Amino acid sequence: MTSPLPNLAEFADELVIGLLDPADQARAERLEREDQTFAQLVNAARKRFSALDQTAPQQDLPSGMWQRVLDAIEQEAPEAQAAASEPVDLDKARQRRSSSALFWTTATSLAASLFLAVALGWNLMSTVEPKVVAILLSDAGQPVAMIEGAADNTTLVTMLGETTVPGDRVMQLWTKPDPAGPPVSLGVFDKPRKTVLSVSGLPSPSTDQLYEITFEQPGGSPTGLPTGTILGKGFSSQPH
Amino acid sequence: MDKDATAGNLSILIEACARSDTSALRLIMDAEGPRMLGVARRILNRGDLAEDAVQDTFVQIWRKAAQFGTAHGTIGDTPEASARSWIYAILRNRCLTLLRSAAREVATEDDRLEKQLDADTIDQAWTSLGHESDLRHCLGALQEEKRTAVLMAYVLGYSHGEIAGRLNAPLGSAKAWLRRGLAALRECMS
């Protein structure tokens, strides 16, 4: 870590205002999910700036937008239902666990936040304690990426060998939590280098779960499902 | 969904989305969509990308509706303020992701015109903040370069480097203005 101990309130402000680089943003989002003190700082920052959102001049929406949204959510109905039942339970479970542990009492939560922020900062790897690992292979059988998925679906992507990304494309990582269900995006990244992705609302990854990377248009697949060329795919195993 | 009973009540509408009520999502779009497109347009500076961002945001609102209320809202917030803050956080996040991944495709032929448009957008945001607003009061207390840097970051989605470039300042100065400006706002609005 090159920067000094981050001031958590400043870190929260920078997340909200949009000044963090992608790696710091992933750390901040993880911290927001896992630490109530930091989540409250983020909420407070959002509230401070929200008046500025209301200053934007209103603009008419294009007439077809509602239908496109409807098409997208109907196409993803199974995923939406899965997401609707899953995260509430996970969050409640996490809160129960948190409130019962002495470590997370009010008196120590700030210290814990600082410790977590430092621990995350010291080493990017420490942000992902892999529950599963998958090696993605190209059509030609060459390894193209290693995926390390944590229980909370924070995912470390390590690219293997040389990857050429077409000029107008980004990479998108997908997984299938339900083998019979649709692929779900774990995140978009534009450079073929070590990247941490995080996503909420998915069940914890398990073994024999499909992962794949596709090339998609900037911002990711417009349909919410993989549409581009597949760079590589593979199934997860449990590390020992 | 009874439109009269729920129109404008965003937190109830989001909860209805979690129960797969598409008419609730439509009511949110009717109520907030035009403002959301305005926010996206200021950041992305391109109509097509801004529309994509708003559209994606509504899909995300639908997907994440069940999470609303479990992790959001602080003591003292009204459900309405929490709901609005939740929606705009998703929108801003989507806009910034699109902005960073699409690389800013602005016309560079006339940098002066571009700077003028940026300045106009910032001015418009600043002057539209209600005089009774705490944010207006506290931003007003900042030195101009700090205020402008904060507004450029939030309203236009500019990075440290872009802010330094626009203000013809060294990167270190731009970072310091932002850091001190944000700290002063925290202090002033606490």
Automatic annotation (TrEMBL), chain A:
Residues 109-230 form the Anti-sigma K factor RskA C-terminal domain. InterPro entries: Anti-sigma-K/W_factor, RskA_C. The keyword Cytoplasm does not apply. The chain crosses the membrane at residues 101-122. Coiled coil: none annotated. Keywords: Membrane, Transmembrane, Transmembrane helix. Residues 218-234 have a biased composition (Low complexity). This is Anti-sigma-K factor RskA. It comes from Roseibium suaedae. The lineage of its organism: Bacteria, Pseudomonadati, Pseudomonadota, Alphaproteobacteria, Hyphomicrobiales.
UniProtKB/TrEMBL annotation, chain B:
Residues 134-185 form the RNA polymerase sigma factor 70 region 4 type domain. Signal peptide: none annotated. Keywords: Sigma factor, Transcription, Transcription regulation. One of its GO terms (molecular function) is DNA binding. Residues 30-104 form the RNA polymerase sigma-70 region domain. InterPro entries: RNA_pol_sigma-70-like, RNA_pol_sigma-70_dom, RNA_pol_sigma70_r2, RNA_pol_sigma70_r4_t2, RNA_pol_sigma_r2, RNA_pol_sigma_r3/r4-like, WH-like_DNA-bd_sf. The keyword Transcription regulation applies. It holds the Pfam family Sigma70_r2. The keyword Repeat does not apply. It comes from the Bacteria. One of its GO terms (biological process) is DNA-templated transcription initiation. PANTHER family: RNA POLYMERASE ECF-TYPE SIGMA FACTO, RNA POLYMERASE SIGMA FACTOR SIGZ. Belongs to the sigma-70 factor family. ECF subfamily. This is RNA polymerase sigma-70 factor, ECF subfamily. It comes from Roseibium suaedae. The lineage of its organism: Bacteria, Pseudomonadati, Pseudomonadota, Alphaproteobacteria, Hyphomicrobiales.
